[in-house]
Amino acid sequence: MVKTVHLLVLSQFILQCATCPIMADLMTLCLVPRDIVVAAIETTRRCQEETRQACRRMFHWYGSVVNINPALFNFVVAAYERLKFVASL
After folding, report:
1. Total structural domains in the chain?
2. pLDDT tens track of the chain, all 89 residues?
3. pTM higher than 0.70 for the full model?
4. How far apart are CA 37 and CA 54, in angstroms?
5. How far apart are CA 53 and CA 28, in angstroms?
6. Residue numbers of the domain that contains 68
7. How far apart are CA 20 and CA 22, in angstroms?
8. Separation CA 37–CA 84 (nearest Å)
C-alpha cells in the first residue's frame, strides 16, 4: 500500500512538473507528500518558528510533494562527524 501511494504521488508529481524546472542538489530525490511534511512541521513543539523557516528554506517544494533529501544528507553528514568524534575519544 505505501509503495503504491508513493508511486501515485510520484506520477502525479511528474505530470504536474512536466513543464517546470526541477532543482536537485544531489543525484537522489526523496519525495514525500506535502501534507506529511506540513503536518510534521506544524507538530514541532520546540523552536516552532525557527524550525518552520528552516524547513521552508531547506526543502524543495514541488506542488503536492517535497524533496527532503538535502536535509537528510546534511543530517547524515552531521551524525557521521559526531560518531567519528565519539569513536576517537
Report:
1. 1
2. 344 445 445 555 555 555 566 665 556 778 889 999 999 888 888 888 888 888 888 888 888 888 888 788 888 888 999 998 888 88
3. no
4. 13
5. 23
6. 2-88
7. 6
8. 30
